[in-house]
Amino acid sequence: MTAAQLLAYVAISVSWVEAGSLDTFVAAVYEHVVILPNDTLLPVSREEALVLMNRNLDLLERAIASAAKQGAHIIVTPEDGLYGWNFNRETIYPYLEDIPDPQVNWIPCNHPNRFGHTPVQNRLSCLAKENSIYVVANIGDKKPCNASDPQCPLDGRYQYNTDVVFDSQGKLVARYHKQNLFLGEGQFNVPKEPEAVTFDTTFGRFGIFTCFDILFHDPAVTLVKDFHVDTVLFPTAWMNVLPHLSAIEFHSAWAMGMKVNFLASNIHHPAKKMTGSGIYAPDSPRAFHYDMKTKEGKLLLSQLDSHPNHPVVVNWTSYASGIEALSTGNKEFKSIVFFDEFTFLELKGDTGNYTVCQKDLCCHLSYKMSEKEADEVYALGAFDGLHTVEGSYHLQICTLLKCKTTNLHTCGHSVETASTRFDMFSLSGTFGTQYVFPEVLLSGIQLAPGEFQVSSDGRLFSLKPPSGPVLTVTLFGRVYEKDHPSSASSHLTAETLIVML
Ligand SMILES: *[C@@H]1O[C@H](CO)[C@@H](O)[C@H](O)[C@H]1NC(C)=O
Ligand SMILES: *[C@@H]1O[C@H](CO)[C@@H](O)[C@H](O)[C@H]1NC(C)=O
Ligand SMILES: *[C@@H]1O[C@H](CO)[C@@H](O)[C@H](O)[C@H]1NC(C)=O
Ligand SMILES: *[C@@H]1O[C@H](CO)[C@@H](O)[C@H](O)[C@H]1NC(C)=O
Hints:
alpha+beta, Nitrilase/N-carbamoyl-D-aminoacid amidohydrolase, 6-stranded mixed β-sheet, 31% strand, globular
C-alpha cells in the first residue's frame, strides 16, 4: 500500500467511524401505570400470567411506538413493569422465563423458539425491531439448578429480578440480575457475584442497574469508575422518601455526582408513593416528571450528549476544611431524618453563616433568604453514621431543610411545600468520601435545573435565586467502605465500649 493509498484508507475509515457515531441521541423514559395481579400470593397458571404481562406490554407498546415516532434511540421502562410486586417464590414462577446470556447472539423476534418458551422476550424483541429502537425492560429470569450446586435453593432453581435490553434490530444485548434486593423481594435470589453489565452503541457506552442498587458500590459505582459508561439505564419501582430520597431528587443528584447521563423510569402508583421519572445529564436534569395527583402514565423524551464531558474534579472537603466554625450562640438539637439522628442548628436570621458537626463531618452553610417567613423554620443538619433500617449503608450528609412545623422535633419529617424564598445558598462539608450527590428540591417536589452548581472545592451553590421556595439543599455522601464493619472490629468496638463505661 502506497502512502497515498494508506492516507485514503485512513480517511475512509475515519469518515466511516464519524458517520456511524452520534454526538447526541434522544432518550425516552416511560412512567408506567402497571396493571397489578388481583392476588400476588395465589398461584396462577402460566397462561394467566401471560395474559397479565401482555396487558402491560400493550401499554408499553404504545409508549415504545410513540417514543420511536418522536425520534428516540432508546426507551427505558420500569422495574416490575409487567407484573408488579409482593410475590413469593412460588407465585412469581409462572411469570419467569429462562433468559440466555446475550453472548448467544439472539434476535428472539427472528428465532422465537431457539431457547424454549419465551413469549415475553419475543414480544419485547419484536417491539424493538419493528420500531427500530433500543428497548429496556425488567422481567424475571429462572435458572434451574440441582444438588451439584450446594447453594441451589430447595425448589431447584434460581430466580432473578432481571433487566434486559434489545437493540434496534431486536437482538438481546444486555441481561442484568439485580444485586441489591429491597425488603419484600424474597421471591428473587441475589446473583453469586455482582454483574457489571455494559454494551456499546453508536451513541455511547451504556451500563444498567436496578432501583435499590443505586445506594451501593457494586455494580453502580464500578460501572462508572472502572467501565466508564456514559449513560446509566435505571428501571425502578421507587417509593419516595422525603427529605433526601425522593426519586427525581436522588436520581438527578447521582447523575451529577457521578457525572453520567441517567435514565430513570419509575412505576406510576401514587398509593405506594411511586412516581418520579427523569432524564438527567450530569450538569442538569433535562426532563422530569412527578405526579401524585393523576393515575396517568407519562412518556418523557430529551436529547443528551452521547459522551457527556467530565470537566471538574471535585474535592469534596477542600472548601469546608478551611472554614473556621463561628459560634452563633444557637443551641444544637437532635432530630430524626428517616431513622437517622442528625445534629441540627436552627437558622435564626434571614442571612447567616452556620457550621454544624457530627463525628467526622462538619457542614458549613452561607445563605440569604429574601424574607424569613414567621411560620417556617429551616435548619442546617449533619449526619455521619451507618443507616441500618431497610439496608445497611454508611452516610455522611450535610443538609439545609425546611422543618415540617415550627416544632424543632419535626425537622427531617416529610414535608412537600414551603413558602420561604432564598436569594442564595452555599453548602459544603468535610466529607471523607469522593461520592457525594448534590440535591436541590423546591416546594411541590420540583427540581431546579440550571439554578445551581458544584465548584471544584466542594461547594454546592446557587447560580441565581431558586425559582421556588426551598424544601432542601443537601450534600448526600456515601462512605462505601464503612458499609460492612467486620464482625471482628464490631466485637472490638463493643469490648472497648464496655471498658470505657
Ligand atoms: C381481577 O378480578 C376481576 C374480577 O374477577 C377481573 O375482572 C380482572 O380481570 C382481574 N384482574 C386480573 C389482573 O387478573
Ligand atoms: C445438574 O445441573 C447441571 C447444570 O445445571 C446439569 O448439567 C446436570 O445435568 C444436572 N444433573 C442432574 C442429575 O440433573
Ligand atoms: C482536598 O482538599 C484538602 C484540603 O484542602 C486536601 O488536604 C486534600 O489533599 C485534597 N484532596 C485531594 C484528593 O486532592
Ligand atoms: C458569611 O461569610 C461570607 C464569606 O464566607 C462573608 O462574605 C459574609 O459577610 C458572611 N456573612 C455573615 C452574615 O456573617
